[in-house]
Amino acid sequence: MYGKLSGMTGTADTEAYEFQQIYGLETVVIPTNQPMQRTDNNDQVFRTAKENIPRSSPTSVAARTRATGAGRHDLDRKPELLSALLDHEKLPHQVLNAKQHAREAEIVREAGRPGVITIATNMAGRGTDIVLGGSIEKQVSQIRDDEALPQAERDARIAEIRAQWQKLHEQVVAAGGLHIIGSERHESRRIDNQLRGRSGRQGDPGSSRFYLALDDSLLRIFAGDRLKSIMERLKMPEGEPIEHPLVSRSLESAQRKVEARNFDMRKQLLEYDDVANDQRKVIYAQRNELLETEDISETVTAMREGVLHDAFRLHVPAESVEEQWDLPGLEKALASDLQLDLPIVEWSTNEPSLRDEAILRRIVDAASTSYTAKVELVGAEVFHQFERNVMLQSLDTHWREHLAALDHLRQGIHLRGYAQKNPKQEYKREAFELFQRLLDSVRTDVTRLLMTVQIRAQDVEETAPQAAVQNVRYQHADYDDALGQGNEAAAVAQKPLPTGPKVGRNDPCPCGSGKKYKFCHGKLS
């Protein structure tokens, strides 16, 4: 919906096709600020996860002074399993999962210190820079802001901290930088690239390697049987992995297949949602117009004429002979639905030459006259506000029902494929029909309510326009309740009308309650 779209991420290249297809955005790869020094080693594939996990744990790292990060696909279970293995080897480490969300940035910042082992999910710690040797900015800022220390002592402490950090930094760089260990592949190459991207930032040295097992979900589905047969033919001993560029390429090919499948699913969902989105634009545009316009009488008039035309053609079909007309049925329908008591049969009997278009014109004029009389009773300004409220209520109610109907239609539309029909085309067709019914329902309900609302003429001249609108009594209880005025309308309808001489509004009420008439049976609402 925005006029301009753009974004920046370090892993957009693998999703370039989707950005182009969905958003029409071209992906441009910008060279790194410093030359990339990270070494991405070939994957190692084991026969079982039991063989994979001990080898992929950070205990296999030769240089203990090297910072190590282990990435897992699972959120909690596998990181805790790796943590238990490291505890058994008496190796201190940090586990970054949902339980440590408050300390996430702090844990990731310290992942670059010598000998620090951090176990994290693939998605954890993004947006936090991992500095080789650890982050000292927090310590420096605390000393810099400590006004109790003289400036010279603050500068000396900061210089000492930076000197200590420089030694740690050089120690980690000499050991090879941050090493990333992935204990399984994600379905998306983008997620794996995000994990690798923790290492080798801003020209720092680093390395990465993924350790996999044939019973991992990705390998099991796409390449497990073939690799397993190769390992059996070569009679490879237990715990010995396969490491070859061909294996890594096969894994990337499998990831591309999964990515393509997921993209097709997202694209299909988007196509279905576009249908509802087009309808949403129409409804919201209509709603905004209602909110911004004080007088919607032209819209109400058009809706009323449309409802009358449909009702008329239901009983008097177009281009039909008089013997096919159902004028008595038309009279009853107009009287019951719109409170229009019109002598339509008498018109036709007294004027045999009267054509159907002329009868329709008389009905429309009579409805317009009846409606105008109601508006004049309470004042145009008050009644126009009532029109807006009624239409907004009806539009919102039917739109909610329409969204539920679309969702129900979407859940079962795939079954049309068994009938050799295109589900997407069927969805578009039926969604359009549902939208037409929505518009017809709104038009009918608004017209029915506005035409059948009853206004008491009693005391209209004596009351202000603001009070006059409270004299409106609704004919249909469902709309009374929807507008929050059902109980008031019922109370007005049940009050007995005064008999005998006219009672002044400030006189005692004739019922004997002791209250003034305007606060008792003469109360407006």
Distance between the termini: 46 Å
SSE class: alpha/beta
Apparent shape = elongated
Radius of gyration: 39 Å
Secondary structure: number of strands: 9
DSSP summary: helix tally: 19
Helix content: 40-55%
On the 0 to 100 scale, the average pLDDT is 79
Largest sheet: 7 strands, parallel
Give descriptors for this structure:
525 residues, alpha/beta, 7-stranded parallel beta sheet, two-stranded antiparallel ribbon, 9 strands, 54% helix, 7% strand, elongated
Question: Could you write a compact summary of the structure shown?
Answer:
With 525 residues, this protein is of the alpha/beta class.
Written overview of the protein:
With 525 residues, the protein is an alpha/beta fold. Helix content is 54%, strand content 7%. It has 19 helices and nine strands. The strands form two sheets. Strands 1, 2, 3, 4, 5, 6 and 7 form a seven-stranded parallel sheet that branches. A two-stranded antiparallel ribbon has the order 8-9. Helix 5 packs antiparallel against helix 6 (151-174). The radius of gyration is 39 Å and the shape is elongated.
